[in-house]
Amino acid sequence: MNDNLTPAIDIRGLTKTYGTGALAFQALKGVDLRVDQGEFMMLVGPSGSGKTTLLSILGCVLTPTDGEARLYGEALHGKKESDLPRLRLEYIGFIFQGHNLMNALSAEENIAVPLELRGYSHRAALTEAREVLTAVGLKDKFKKRPDELSGGQRQRVAVARAVAGRPPLILADEPTASLDAESGMQVTQLLKSLCAERGHTVVCVTHDNRIFHLADRTVHIEDGRIVPAPAVH
Ligand SMILES: Nc1ncnc2c1ncn2[C@@H]1O[C@H](COP(=O)(O)OP(=O)(O)OP(=O)(O)O)[C@@H](O)[C@H]1O
Ligand SMILES: [Mg+2]
């Protein structure tokens, strides 16, 4: 079930409860969400509303408590924690708030090393790393370490790392939070065009209303539930 009509994300009645007993906290309270293949969706909501929790379930980092979640037709509900790494490798590329690059490694190594862990040969990993770095406009920075790059360039390496190996779903948690307005806009535009070109689906958590207009769709979450867009005042 992996044709173009199968939704990239299909979530029904999804809940997530952290902890148990008196300490239990329900962070997701019944989320329904469908995202089509190739869509660029932004997920917006106040602090503590459940954005990272939802992204973590989609990213196969956390298992849901109840409800159904499918990635490209494959069920995440009912899976064991030990199944998650395989699913993560198959489906997901992550971009974090900070760039999360390894400082001791060059830009190309930061991308190639995880690919080798996924089974690429050294040569194939390096070829793919250079291809995605070229695609994000860093053709002349293959050998630079993160501390030799600007903030915007580091986040472009992070974008390149996420799309390397072509995982179908890219998840970004506030990718522009550590950037100035101009670089934030550039990185988001790059993420959008690169993913459209390569056919990735994107879910991007953001507070940054300057980049909302780049989304195909903006989904709002409040207190663990998807809500209609708040009225603009
Ligand atoms: N590991 C955990 N154990 C217990 N409660 C948690 C845990 N992680 C998150 N929570 C709670 O779940 C709720 C949702 O957290 P989440 O991190 O998903 O919010 P968020 O929307 O990403 O917020 P922010 O914008 O601040 O990043 C919060 O009330 C938080 O305190
Ligand atoms: Mg968060």
Description:
By secondary structure, this protein is an alpha/beta fold. The chain is built from 6 helices and 10 strands. It has one domain: Rossmann fold. Helices cover 31% and strands 24% of the residues. A hairpin with a 6-residue loop joins strand 1 and strand 2 (25-35). The model has no long low-confidence stretch (mean pLDDT 94). The structure holds adenosine-5'-triphosphate and magnesium ion. Residues 51-52 line the site of magnesium ion.
Question: Which properties best describe this structure?
Answer:
233 residues; alpha/beta; Rossmann fold; six-stranded mixed β-sheet; four-stranded antiparallel β-sheet; 6 helices; 10 strands; globular; binds adenosine-5'-triphosphate; binds magnesium ion
Write the layout of secondary structure elements.
Layout: E1 9-18, E2 25-35, E3 40-44, H1 51-58, E4 66-71, E5 74-75, H2 84-91, E6 92-95, H3 107-117, H4 122-135, H5 151-163, E7 169-173, H6 181-198, E8 201-205, E9 217-222, E10 225-227
Helix pairs in contact: 3-4, 3-5, 4-5, 5-6
The structure holds adenosine-5'-triphosphate (ATP) and magnesium ion (MG).
